[in-house]
DNA sequence: TGCATTTCATTATTTCAATGAACTAATGAT
DNA sequence: ATCATTAGTTCATTGAAATAATGAAATGCA
């Protein structure tokens, strides 16, 4: 990791150069269309330094020049943009119901995506299957000609910081699986950055990092699916995912909302997941694991008992959101996962409770922006891809590839 | 703030020098007795660079040389230590029951302390009172001859990041008070760094930063007093307090533990504070605000109803700890505040619950270190002082004062 | 005791990235 | 057309760290 704190404790001139290059790149990424002069002002660097830095980033395919900006009595500056056509980022998610994978451009645009249904099976079979699908994705028309920066994999369970072992994935039946290593054995041709992260954390990162416009100081992604998890991303200008000592940060499905309540599969009583989660709803509404929760529920949505069950679950979700508000106080919340498809009967009680409660303490009217993702199929996979970019951007000279003369011709 | 990210986005040679100086200083602070050679290895700097850096830090009174280290066949290195006799850090806390203040050395040793009883009153009167006490503290025998780096103030309420306004202090009856500015008007002579932070956050910072031995990656301080608050410190080697958008991070007293439960003073129902806090216990046990909770309870500790009440409250605290474990997963937890004095009848149920529950999810036996502070009178004030040091250490040349020849003589 | 060896620390000297000042380039205003 | 203004480049200079050589102080062994 280029950011592994202790390394950056001190630095030499090369470190400084790297720092400034990545600062320039990140600034243009966040504010497309900046000119060299804008960068110099913002970064407090001289025009000369910015000039050479930008030159290098252009040569390596990170940036491209755009139109001349409107001038107000002086030479107009040249707009700079991320070169969205040169690199590719690969992201994948191992989910309970299958494998999802995407190829993204630097701006987070999805070039190609694939959803492969696969019921829970062994890590070995899963890795092999995923590797095959990724091979096809990499060979696809929009991807093959790009330079691939690396692969990020999202998994439904906690990962301790700095590790590549999935500690536990209850919904897959896995425990202590070195999934990234397994996958690499089946995909030795894919070079570059290899990362693995928890699904909600990857999603959180992607939602913050690929945001257009102002990037918030922090973002909380709440993933409500078979289980409930969250991911918090913090830090400006270099956002970082919060993991905690054992990777348990964000295991909010196992916070207690009802002391002495029902037993959870984790062994504790009254966990949030016993009140709101895919598996509790299935149990409460008598829906088999093989069936799609949304489709099975569709014809019964108007039933009183269904309405009541969804309302209770929604309220529990609202309580969970309030607790996170008063624990982590994120700048923004994004709600995703398969449960968001259950619609207003589930979501409205959650939002109503959260909206009514969030400002009581301070007695103000500021609302934390909350966004609901209707279809979060590829959110985690795309987030994992975002993490690859965030990694590469810390050392653009090392991870970037020098443009060949022909490629340079094309992009200029 | 020297760390206010956006500024450090990019840097020049002066920035690099500053970075390396503070890295050296921080390394010696964490690992007393390092030699120049040790630093060079650890920081991946050359001996030459470390040599000049150390020289400058010696001249400014940050470091001092110690004994020669034992050699194993070669020239022995010279041990380096923080110069614990040159600078002073001032910390203060505005609490519900009075003002607390400390003067610390760089290692966090308390040089002088003062506890001034003062019932809640206006910000103006409080500021004036505090200023007078601080004047006396600054003139004290162990403090006056030192160079003062600045003042940190801890207050019982949320502060939005980057602000110096106390948004709300329910237990003082304050709202939107620019307390630091008020205080400065009464204490114009005190130069250097001025900081204000929430009480639990300051305490958390101090407990992590002034720790001897290995410094954990993160630390959660839970302050259980009249209200319940927490502070999370994260980051290695530069720890940072988590605040959230509005400074509400750590307002765990207002997380819901009992949906539909009793009304809290914040207006929501079933807040943790309705189950465990000084004010709930007072209400439940019929103890007046003027009386000291601990002393009033002492003769009744064996009563069944008291035991039962304390047990219920303790269990709620345990639940709260578990929820924080599954939300933030800190490397270490420190429990402080006036309620820790209530003893085993209160604490054991909390610890028992937390110990029994914390590992169920992962199915392992690793225990999160949890320390209880019996007397946390000066913890927040000392933590505020720690924050002053953390600030100054980012630019030792700027904040340090060049040793006068006479002073240099004394310290060498 | 003498001497090679090892490690610590300091001292020139070199390297390298950012700076600053001078310069060219391109536009709008007069 | 001229000028003021802003954008971007060129190049000598500056400054901080690397490199390499030297001195210093211990250990260990003949």
From TrEMBL, chains A, B:
GO molecular function: kinase activity
Keyword terms of this UniProt record: Kinase, Transferase
Any coiled-coil regions, as ranges: none
Keyword Transferase (UniProt): yes
Entry-linked PANTHER family: BIFUNCTIONAL UDP-N-ACETYLGLUCOSAMINE 2-EPIMERASE_N-ACETYLMANNOSAMINE KINASE (PTHR18964:SF149), ROK (REPRESSOR, ORF, KINASE) FAMILY (PTHR18964)
Protein family according to the UniProt entry: Belongs to the ROK (NagC/XylR) family.
Entry protein name: Sugar kinase of the NBD/HSP70 family, may contain an N-terminal HTH domain
């Amino acid at each position: 990791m280029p950011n592994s704190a202790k390394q950056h404790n001190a630095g030499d001139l090369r470190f400084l150069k790297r720092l400034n290059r990545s600062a320039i790149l990140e600034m243009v990424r966040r504010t497309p269309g900046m000119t060299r002069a804008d960068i110099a002002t913002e970064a407090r660097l001289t025009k000369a330094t910015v000039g050479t830095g930008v030159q290098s980033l252009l040569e390596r395919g990170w940036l491209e020049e755009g139109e001349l900006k409107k001038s107000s009595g002086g030479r107009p500056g040249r707009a700079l943009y991320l070169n969205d056509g040169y690199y590719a980022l690969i992201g994948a998610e191992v989910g309970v119901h299958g494998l999802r994978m995407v190829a993204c451009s630097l701006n987070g645009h999805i070039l190609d995506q694939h959803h492969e249904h696969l019921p829970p099976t062994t890590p070995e079979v899963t890795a092999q299957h995923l590797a095959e699908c990724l091979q096809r994705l990499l060979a696809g028309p929009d991807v093959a000609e790009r330079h691939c920066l690396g692969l990020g994999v999202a998994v439904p369970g906690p990962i301790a910081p700095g590790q590549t072992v999935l500690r536990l994935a209850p919904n897959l039946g896995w425990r202590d699986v070195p999934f990234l290593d397994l996958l690499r054995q089946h995909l030795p041709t894919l070079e570059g950055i290899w990362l693995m992260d928890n699904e909600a954390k990857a999603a959180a990162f992607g939602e913050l990092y690929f945001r257009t416009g102002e990037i918030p100081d922090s973002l909380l992604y709440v993933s409500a699916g078979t289980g409930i998890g969250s991911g918090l991303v913090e830090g400006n200008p270099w956002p970082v995912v919060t993991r905690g000592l054992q990777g348990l940060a964000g295991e909010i499905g196992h916070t207690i909302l009802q002391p002495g309540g029902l037993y959870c599969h984790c062994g504790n009583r009254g966990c949030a997941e016993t009140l709101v989660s895919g598996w509790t709803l299935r149990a409460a509404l008598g829906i088999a694991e093989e069936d799609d929760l949304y489709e099975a529920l569709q014809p019964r949505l108007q039933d009183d008992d269904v309405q009541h069950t969804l309302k209770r679950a929604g309220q529990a979700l609202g309580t969970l959101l309030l607790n996170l508000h008063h624990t982590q106080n994120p700048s923004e919340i994004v709600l995703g996962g398969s449960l968001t498809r259950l619609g207003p009967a589930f979501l409205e009680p959650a939002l109503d409770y959260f909206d009514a409660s969030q400002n009581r303490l301070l007695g103000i009217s500021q609302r934390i922006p909350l966004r609901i993702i209707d279809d979060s199929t590829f959110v985690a996979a795309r987030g994992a891809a975002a993490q690859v970019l965030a990694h590469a951007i810390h050392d653009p000279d090392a991870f970037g590839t020098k443009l060949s003369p022909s490629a340079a011709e094309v992009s200029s």
